[in-house]
Structures are given as C-alpha cells and as structure tokens.
C-alpha cells in the first residue's frame, strides 16, 4: 500500500512510540508512525477505521492551501515576502560543497549542487527564518506600543502547521512562514499571540480582548485559516 484516499503513504518506525499515530503532514502526505516490531500488515485496517477523519482533515488542509502530494516542488525563481513587501529574484549557480545563499539587493544567488533540491530548500528556509526575525520583531514591538500589551521573549521557528504560540511565561513563538502572508494577517496573528499574554486560553474573555483591539477579528481569523495558500511548496 503506497497511498490511501489519494494521499502518498509513509510508514515510519519510532522506537519510542507506544502506539500507532496517524497524521497528515504538509509536504509529505499521510504518515503512520508505528512502534518497533509492529506488524505493518495491520496498517490498512487502522487506516480504514480512521478514513473519515483522514478525509475530513485532508479536505481542510487542502482548502488551507497545504501541499499533501509528497512530491518535491521545482526550485523557485521568485520569492515573495508579502509581509515585508519584498520580492527576490533567485539565481542558481552550480557548485560543489554546501549550499550558500547570498543576498544582493533584490536578488538571491544560491550556489551549491543544484540537483540537491532538499538542501537548497533547507538553505532558503534558514534564510527566510533569519529575515522573519528581522521583520517580525520590529512589527511585534509596534503592536506592543499600539496595544500596551507586552511579552518576554520572541522565538522564530519553522513549524509545519502552527502560525504561532505563547507560553505561560510570555514567550511568543512565531512561524517563519508568516513572512509570506499579507501584512494585515501578520498583524492580526501578532495581536492574537499578544492577547494570550493576558488570557492563555480561547475563552470569551480572550476573544473580547482581541475584539477590543480588532473589531474585525472574525474575518481575519477566517482568512488566517486559509493562510497556507500564500506559503510556497518548498517551505511546507
């Protein structure tokens, strides 16, 4: 069995796993994590039991613009950071050795083994995460001044699904993918996490706090759900 309900299927063995875990992973497809020694012949029956959940989750992720094909995308010729209003033209230079990304005004020169797309994508993701911090940190500070809300630390991560999170200590973690979203959605997500520094939940009080700063939050929350359509496949 190489696919299920039109999704590429991967079975991964995790020695620390105590039970079977079925998940849909952007850029990968359907992934089944099993403990060491698990009988793989049982996987089809497990997938049939979870078929309705898999199909429902698949449709949600596809509607959000997530890629579940499991196929490597082509190398990008253009990178559009909407939150930064910056568009880079990307040039590739075939060279041996590790992949390097050099920024020159509105162009990026990527040197390395061009056929190794995974390594190039990884280098571009690292570059994006670096730029995300440069762009999002000042924007977060701006939102703090605008709202009077505060935080203790900022972390930039390369997560598969979550746009951001806030810890009980006030540490805000933001997904580097935010750089691809329109600024209006980025600002809303920053506000979303800043409000969690006051209400670490999604209670009525929390949403009332959000609404006090952004009355149009329901529309923005709905648009954020489909924010994956702005993220290029090489970053999913």
Write up this protein.
It holds the Pfam family YgjP-like. GO terms for molecular function: peptidase activity. It comes from Pseudodesulfovibrio nedwellii. Helix content is 35%, strand content 24%. The chain is α/β, with parallel strands linked by helices and 236 residues long. It folds into 2 domains: 3-63, no CATH class; 78-235, 2-Layer Sandwich (Zincin-like), CATH 3.30.2010.10. It has a 4-stranded mixed beta sheet, with helices on one face.
**H/E series, N to C?**
EEEEHHEEEEHEEEHHH
What is the total domain count? 2
Uncertain residue ranges: none
Q: Termini separation (Å)?
A: 24 Å
Fraction of residues in helix: 25-40%
What is the gist of this entry?
Residues 20-225 form the YgjP-like metallopeptidase domain. By secondary structure, this protein is of the alpha/beta class.
For the structure shown, list the relevant keywords.
236 residues, alpha/beta, Zincin-like, 4-stranded mixed β-sheet, 35% helix, 24% strand, globular
């Amino acid at each position: 069995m190489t696919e299920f309900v039109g999704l590429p299927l991967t079975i991964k063995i995790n020695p620390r796993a105590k039970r079977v875990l079925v998940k849909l992973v952007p850029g990968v497809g359907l992934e089944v994590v099993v403990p060491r020694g698990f009988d793989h012949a049982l996987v089809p029956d497990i997938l049939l039991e979870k078929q309705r959940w898999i199909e429902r989750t698949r449709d949600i992720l596809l509607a959000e613009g997530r890629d579940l094909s499991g196929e490597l995308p082509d190398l990008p010729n253009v990178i559009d950071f909407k939150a930064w209003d910056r568009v880079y033209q990307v040039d590739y230079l075939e060279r041996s050795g590790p992949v390097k990304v050099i920024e020159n005004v509105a162009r990026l020169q990527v040197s390395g083994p061009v056929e190794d797309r995974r390594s190039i994508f990884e280098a571009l993701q690292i570059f994006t995460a670096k730029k995300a911090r440069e762009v999002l940190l000042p924007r977060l500070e701006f939102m703090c001044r605008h709202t009077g809300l505060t935080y203790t630390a900022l972390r930039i991560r390369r997560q598969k699904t979550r746009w951001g999170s806030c810890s009980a200590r006030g540490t805000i973690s933001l997904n580097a993918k935010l750089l691809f979203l329109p600024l209006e959605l980025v600002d809303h997500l920053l506000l979303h996490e800043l409000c969690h520094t006051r209400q670490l939940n999604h209670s009525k009080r929390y949403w009332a706090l959000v609404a006090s700063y952004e009355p149009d939050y329901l529309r923005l929350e709905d648009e954020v759900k489909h924010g994956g359509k702005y993220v290029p496949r090489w970053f999913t």
